Amino acid sequence: MVITSVDVIQSIIDGILYGSIYALIGVGFTLIFGAMQKLNMAYAASSIAGAYCGLGISAVLSLNLLVTFFLGPLVGGLIGILVYLVCFRFIPSREHLGSLMASIGALFLIDEIIVHETDGSPLNFPELGIFSEAYFLVGEFGFRGDLIFVLIVSLLAMTSIILMLYRTKYGLAARAVSQQMNAAILCGINPHKVNASTFFLAGVLGGLAGCLAAAAVGVISPLLILPLTIKGLIATVIGGLGSIKGAIIAGLLLGGFESLFLLVRGVNERDIYVFLLLFLFLVFKPNGMFGSIIDRD
Amino acid sequence: MEYYFGILQTLGFHVLLGYSAYILLLTGQLSLAQVGFFAIGAYASGILTVLFEWHIFPALFIGAIAAGCMAFMVGFPALRIKGLMLVIATIAFSEIVRLIFFNLRWRFEINGLEVGPDGAQGFREIRYFAANGWEIYEIVWLIWTMVAVATILLWWLDQIKAGAILRAIGSDELAAESSGINVTSVKIVAMACGGVIAGLSGGLYAHSTTYVDHNTFTVLLATFAVSYPLVGGLKSVFGTLAAVIFIQGILIEGLRFLGDYRTILFGALIILVMNFKPKGIVDENFVKGISEYLRLNKKLIK
Known about the structure:
Chain A has 297 residues and is mainly α.
C-alpha cells in the first residue's frame, strides 16, 4: 500500500478528533492533580464504569440515547466521590504513596467488578444516531460526523470546567485549597468538601468521556480502561502536570500522533511509539509543553 | 503433591518479584516497571535455552543481567523524575516491553521442530527442565534456593551502610542529599538491582511454566509486585515474604472456591491496607512487638 500525503493528513484529522477523548481524561487527571497534587489512577476506570452504569440504567428503563449521555456523567461523578472517600479522604498526605497505591487498587477493583458483572464480553453502545451517518467532505478530506460531535461536546465540557474554575465561587475555593490549604481553612473553606466537589466534577467529565469513547468505538468493554488511563496520563504529562490548557492540546495532538502511527506501523505497534513519545518528553522536557517549572513529586 | 509444588513455584516467582519492587521502594520510589524486567528475563533466558540450547544456569544469569542492564538504562531518564511522574513513566515502559514481545517473531528449526517466540501466540516449547529430566521438587528447590539467597542478601543489606543509605533517601531525600549522598545514582543502582532480581524471577518463571506470552506481563502483575512490599511493610524484608504468602497463598490459592471474586478482593485489600495501615502490616510497632516478645522469652528461659 502506498501512503499518500492525503492519507497522512486524513488519519491525523481523524486522530485529532478522537483525541478529544484523551483531552477530556487528561483534563480530569489535571483537575484532581491540581486540587491535591495527587494522581487518581482509578479515574479512567470510574469513567468507563459511569458509562456502563448509564448504559445499563437506560437499557433497563428503556430510555433513549440522550438520557444515557446524561446518566453516564452523573454516575461517573458519584463514583468519583466514592473513590475520593476510599482512596484520598482518610489517607494521611505524608504517606505520599498511600493514595496512589489505593487508587491503583480501586482501578483494579472497578475493572474486575465490570468484568465480573458483564462476564468480560463487550456490550454494544448505541451509536450517535444521525451523527454517525453524517460525513463531511472538505476538499479531499473527510470528517466523520460522530467524531465532530465528540470534539464539540468535549470542547463545550472543557470550556464550562474552565469557566467554573475561574468565574464561580466554587472555582475560587478550589483554587484556594490547591494553593494553600491552611490559609483556605482559615478563610472558612472546608477543603474536604471542595476536594469532593472537584472529584465529582472530574468524574462528570470522565463519565462523559467514557460515553463518548464508547459511542465512537461502538462497543463498551473493560479493555478500554487501561489504554484510556495510560493515554490520559500521557496527555497530562506531555501537556505539563497541572496545566488544563496543556492537557487539552496534548490530548488532541496525542490522538493525531497515535492515528498517524496506526497508518504507518499498524495497530500492533502503534502504542509502542505513543509510549516512546512519553519517554522523549520525560527526558527532554519533563515539565511538558505548558507546565510551570515544578520540582515536586 | 504436584499441586502444592506448583503453588510453591508460584510463591517463589512472586517473592522475587516483590523483592525487586522492595529494593526500589526503600528509596521511596514506586516503580511499575518490574514486570517489564520480569518479561525481559523470561524471554531472554527462554531464547537462550531454546534457540541456542544453552545450559539453564548461564541462561538464567544472562537473562537477569539483561534485565538489570535494561533497568540501568531506563533508570537514567526515569529516575531524574520522581514520584508520580516515575509511576507514569514505568507504566509506559512496561507496556512498551509487553508490546515489543507481542510483536516479536523469531522462529527457526531446531532438531526438526520450529521453535521460538511467535508474536501474539506467545513463546511455547521452553522445555529445558522436562528435556533434561528435572523432577518437580528439584525445580522447586532451585527456585527457593534463589529466594533464600535473595532474602539473605536483602536482610544483610539492612545490616550494612548501603541499607541505611537507601532508607535515608526513602525517608527524606533532601536531608540525604545534603549529607553527601548522590541520590540519583543510588536510585539507579537500586533500580538495576531490582531489575536483576526481577529478570531472574522471569527466567525461572519461563522455564517452569514452559510457556510465556504477552498477556502475563500486564500492569496487574506490576501492581502485584509493588503491593507485596507495601502491604507487608518496608520495615523488614520478611514483610514482603509474608505478604506474598498471604496474598498469593491464602487470598488467591486458598480462596479458590470464591472464583472470580478473589481478584476483586485483591483491589479491596490494597485499599483497606492503605487506609488503615499505610505503612504496611509489618510496620515499626509490629517489629518492635516481636523483638520485645523474643527478648521476654529469652529472659524467661534464663
